[in-house]
Amino acid sequence: MKILIVGSGGREHTLAWKAAQSDLVTEIIVAPGNVGIKHEPKCRLAKVSAEDVSGLRDLAQAEKVDLTVVGPEAPLVEGLVDQFEEAGLKVFGPRGQAAALEGSKVFTKRLMAKYGIPTGEFEVFDDFHSAEAYLKSIRGPIVVKADGLAAGKGVFVCRDRDEAMAALYVTMKERAFGAAGDRVLIEECLEGEEASFIALTDGRHVLPLASSQDHKAIFDNDLGPNTGGMGAYSPAPVVTREVHDRIMSEVMIPTVRAMENEGIPYLGFLYAGLMIKDGIPRVLEFNARMGDPEAQPLLFRMRSDIVQLMMAAMEGRLGDTSIDWIPEDAVCVVMASGGYPGPYEKGKPITGIEDADALEGVKVFHAGTGDGSNGFVTAGGRVLGVTARALGIAEAIAKAYQAVEKIRWESVHYRRDIGKKALNRV
Ligand code: AMP
Ligand code: GLY
């Protein structure tokens, strides 16, 4: 089989590395990919942007690709899957309407309210003045969210009304996220510990992956602004057996059923971002794809063939499919450019990647890297995802940081506390 993977981050490097291990796969094209992916077996890059849906369709047709897998959300929400299917191409992911689970927070909140899926209380506003009036009527912490896609930046967790007013102003008056912020959600602020719960679904059956946890804030102890994710580990001990069962029966299965019932069946990776308190899960958001950096530790622990799993989903066979995991913990530490998620410099020469990769049970996944005259250079905010696997979370953390310490560039930044919450629970 010839596979096309759409995207250019650490998640896509991980998917390509994992797909290359499948006996079904002879060739992998990644569009646009990153320079780390070029060095993986069976892989090459194509210069087509992840947002150029018709360019990707032309590429898949010209290359006679047998299966396309989409990493990021934007092309899914744009209807990549619909366009590919119309052209007779096989693609793993939700159609545009179903990807609204990520593309419209209002759609998703209303769906959850209709079907009794646990989530925080919320109100929806299309105009600034009524949103402002509502904020004046409340006190205490509150969350303001742009309805549409805002590259992870459209969510403001506000300590008080003043912060909420400022968030509302940025979103609706300054239109910092464009049309995505023309409608806002004002939402109850939930407390607890976050976890990521990702499943494969064929529209009927839900096959859960292992649990994981992201670290969204830029600095240790969850301080500073949110990022795309500064590290992740799997499994997440906050998701006990009982919590897992509740997530499946109260969130994942009802959501897939709800979508089927609405006449917009959902096929693909379904990612629930959850807040867990006293063993009770509530939904913060859904994503229509794999997480980044959750994909790194998850796929690094997966023994099963990911391509076989996606084929089973596309053929509606997930009901009698299971996933085999390596019974170890995995940790991914993201190494970023100093300044990220704000402005940062690019082109810094990176040393030590080979030494880190040579450690047993370690894999360095690339995200924002480029080719310099003398090896890899930095070319993005999140640069590398240094991923390690070991028996026990403490050992996996130690190994990941042992690898991280071998890698250097001028003004590198990474969190020193990835996995600490899991350690506190074991
Ligand atoms: P989202 O993109 O909706 O997941 O929001 C990004 C981050 O904002 C989440 O990972 C949480 O850390 C935080 N967040 C979102 N919604 C809420 C909420 N209702 N209560 C508390 N924190 C939230
Ligand atoms: N790691 C968070 C996300 O992929 O949205």
Automatic annotation (TrEMBL):
User: What InterPro entries does the database record attribute to this sequence?
Assistant: ATP-grasp, ATP_grasp_subdomain_1, PreATP-grasp_dom_sf, PRibGlycinamid_synth_ATP-grasp, PRibGlycinamide_synth, PRibGlycinamide_synth_C-dom, PRibGlycinamide_synth_C_sf, PRibGlycinamide_synth_N
**Its family?**
Belongs to the GARS family.
Q: List GO molecular-function terms, semicolon-separated.
A: ATP binding; metal ion binding; phosphoribosylamine-glycine ligase activity
Q: What EC number(s) does its UniProt record assign? A: 6.3.4.13
ATP-grasp domain location is: 109-315
CC cofactor: Mn(2+); Mg(2+)
Q: Which reaction does it catalyse?
A: 5-phospho-beta-D-ribosylamine + glycine + ATP = N(1)-(5-phospho-beta-D-ribosyl)glycinamide + ADP + phosphate + H(+)
Q: What is the name of this protein?
A: Phosphoribosylamine--glycine ligase
Q: Which UniProt keywords apply?
A: ATP-binding, Ligase, Magnesium, Manganese, Metal-binding, Nucleotide-binding, Purine biosynthesis
Q: Name one Pfam family in it.
A: GARS_N
Q: Which GO terms describe its biological process?
A: 'de novo' IMP biosynthetic process; purine nucleobase biosynthetic process
The EC class name is ligase
The pathway to which it is assigned is:
Purine metabolism; IMP biosynthesis via de novo pathway; N(1)-(5-phospho-D-ribosyl)glycinamide from 5-phospho-alpha-D-ribose 1-diphosphate: step 2/2
SUPFAM superfamilies to which the protein is assigned, alphabetical: Glutathione synthetase ATP-binding domain-like (SSF56059), PreATP-grasp domain (SSF52440), Rudiment single hybrid motif (SSF51246)
Keyword Cell membrane in annotation: no
